[in-house]
Amino acid sequence: MAVKRSKTSRAGRRILVAGAGLATIGALVAAMPAGASQDDVSADGASYGTNGKGWGRMVDVQLLSFNDLHGNLEPPAGSSGQVTQTNPDGTTTKIDAGGVEYLATHLRQAREGNRYSITAAAGDLIGASPLLSGLFHDEPTIGALNKLDLDVTSVGNHEFDEGARELARMQNGGCHPTAGCFVEGKKFKGADFPYLAANVTNEKTGKPLLDPYFIWEKNGVRIGFIGVTLEGTPNVVTAEGVKGLKFGDEVETINKYTKILERKGVKSIVALVHEGGMPASASYNYNCDGDGDGDGEGVSGAIVDIAKNVSPQVDALVTGHTHQAYVCSIPDPSGKPRLVTSASSFGKLYTDTTLTYDRRTKDIVRTAVASANHVVSRDVPKAADLTKLIDDWKALAAPVANRPQGYIAADINGRGSTAYEKPLGDLIADAQLEGLAPADKGGAQVALMNPGGIRSDLVYKASGAEGDGVVTYGESFTVQPFTNMMNVVDLSGANLIAALKQQVSGSNLNSVKILQVSRGLTYTLDMTKTGADRVVDGTIKLNGEAIDPAKTYRVAMNEFLAGGGDGFPALATGTNKLVGASDLDVFNAYLAAKSSATAPLAVPAADRITVVK
C-alpha cells in the first residue's frame, strides 16, 4: 500500500497532493500565447515550458540517496572512514569521509535551489551498529534519519538482526520491550519515513511485512518507490531474526508492484534494492560506463542480473549491500541503458541523481537522467541539530563506552583490509579459541570467524580521551556488535574440510567468503583454480597434522556460523553443542588477559592461509 503523509513542515518535500482549481486552469488557458494549445497546460495548472527546475513540462526531480549506514552516527575511524578518489593523473587519494553531522550538511546544501527533492535509501541503515547506536537498539540512528529528512528506504538484511517485531518498533515507535525507555519521560516515536519490504511476507498469511511501495507526490509530479531486500537474507541473518518470514525473488516482486503502480497511474518508478555489485575499481569516482555504451561491464555481481530483468518501466535502481560505490548504466530487458547506483557505506558518500520528469507522459525521460556520487567530506560545518543528538546519546553511553578493554601497538585492520586473511580476523579467532579451549568451556581445538562479522578496524589513534593504543568497550563493540553467543561443536574432519571448500563454492562461488581461522589451522588457497578446487586438497592441517576426515574435532564459532549462515551448511552438521559466552565478551576477555599498557598486542602476521593468485 502507498504511504500517504502530509508533512508540510518539511518544505513540501514529502507527499503533498496539490492541484489547481478549474478557475486557475481557465485563467492560465486564457493567458496562453497565440498558437499554444490547452495540452500545454499541466494537470495541476502549470504551463508547459522547457525549464526543468520548476513548472515546465520537463521537471527536474532531485533524488538524493545513500545506503548501508549501519548506525554510524559519528565519523567512522581508520580505513572504515575513508573513500578512495582517482585523480586526473591516475594516482589515488584517500579522503576522510562520513559522520551524520556532515552528511546532514551535505544533503541540506545539495537540496538548495531544487523545487523537487527526494531523499531515499537502500537498506541496512541500522544493525551491526557502533555502540552509540547499538547500545540503544538503534533508536539514535532512527532519530538521526528523521532529522536528515529521509523520505523512504527499503529494508536490508540487517534490519532483521533483532527480528520482525523490533523492526516494526523501529517503524512505529514505542519503548523497547525489555530495556524500556532510554530517555526518561520520552517515548521513542519511530521513523518518520516508511520502511519498504515488498518481498518480505508473513509465511502464514502471505501478506507483506511492511508497506511494499510508496508514492511521492508534489504538484502533480508522482514517483513510486518499491523496496526489496536480497532474497538470500535468511542466509546472512540468524534464524531467529527471520523466523516466520518468507523472502521472495527480487525481480518478480519489483515487476509485480510495478504493474500495481502503473494501474494507479504512476509511471515513474524507482526500485530501492538491498542487493549490489562489485565495480571494477574501488574509487568512488570510477567511470563505470567508460566506453559510453551503457552495457554495465564496469560492475559485476548479483545486481547485474536483477537490473537486466527488472521491468523497463522502472526508471532507476538505488542499491546497496556490497558497500561499494558505483554509478553505472545496465541495460533493461528492452536493451535500453538504465541507471544503477550505490553510495558505499557508513554515510561516506551520497548519490545525487537528476530525474527529468515529463508532466505530459508522467514518466521519467530516461535519456535525460544524470547521476554522480559525492563525498561526505568533513570540511563543512557540522549540522548543529545532529551534533546535539549525538552528544545527548554519548552522555548516556559514556559509562559503558569509555571503559578500557586492552591495548594495541598499531592499527589492526579488519574491515579495512582487502586481504582474504585479515589481521583482526586472526586476532578474533585466536580470542575465541583461547576462551573456549578449556574443557569446561567447550574444549575447542580450532575457531572459525565469518569475515562479515568483523565490522571495523581496531585503530591505534585515540577516539576520545582514553589515549593512543587503548581499546575501549565502544571500540571493541564496533568491531563485533552482534553479541552472538559462542558455540563449540563436534565436527567431523570431512565436514570441516567441506566447510573450508564452501568458502569458494556453492552460494559463495561468485562472492567468496574466506573464514578467519585460529592459530594452528593452515591451508593453501589457490585462486587460479575454480570452485571448491581453490582449497587445495592435502594442505589443510591443524598444528602441522593433516585434517583426518574420519576424526572428530571440537570447533568454536559464533551461533550464526553454527547455524550454517553465510553459505556454510557443513558447519550446521555439528553435534554435542556447548553454548558459551558472547563473541564480544570472549574478545574483551582476551584483550584484557593478553595486553597491557607496557605490553600491547602486536599486529598479527596473517600468515595462516597461503594464497596463490
Q: In CATH terms, what is the architecture of the largest domain?
A: 4-Layer Sandwich
Quickly count the helices.
Answer: 14
Q: Per CATH, what is the topology of the largest domain?
A: Purple Acid Phosphatase, chain A, domain 2
- The CATH homologous superfamily name of the largest domain equals Metallo-dependent phosphatases
Instruction: Give the % helix.
Output: 10-25%
Oligomer: single chain
* Separation of the first and last Cα atoms: 50 Å
List unreliable stretches of 5+ residues. Answer: 1-52
Shape: globular
The averaged pLDDT comes out at: 91
Cα-based radius of gyration, to the nearest Å:
26 Å
Strand content: 15-25%
Structural class by sheet pairing and helices: alpha/beta
Give the biggest beta sheet: 7 strands, mixed
Report the top-level CATH class of the largest domain. Answer: Alpha Beta
- What is the number of E strands? 30
Describe the protein.
The chain is an alpha/beta fold. It has two domains: 58-375, 4-Layer Sandwich (Purple Acid Phosphatase, chain A, domain 2); 403-611, 5'-nucleotidase,  domain 2. Helices cover 22% and strands 24% of the residues. The protein has 14 helices and 30 strands. A hairpin with a 2-residue loop joins strand 8 (213-218) and strand 9 (221-229). The longest helix is centred in the middle third of the chain and has 18 residues, at 384-401. The chain is globular. 50% of the residues are buried. Mean pLDDT is 91; it is low at 1-52.
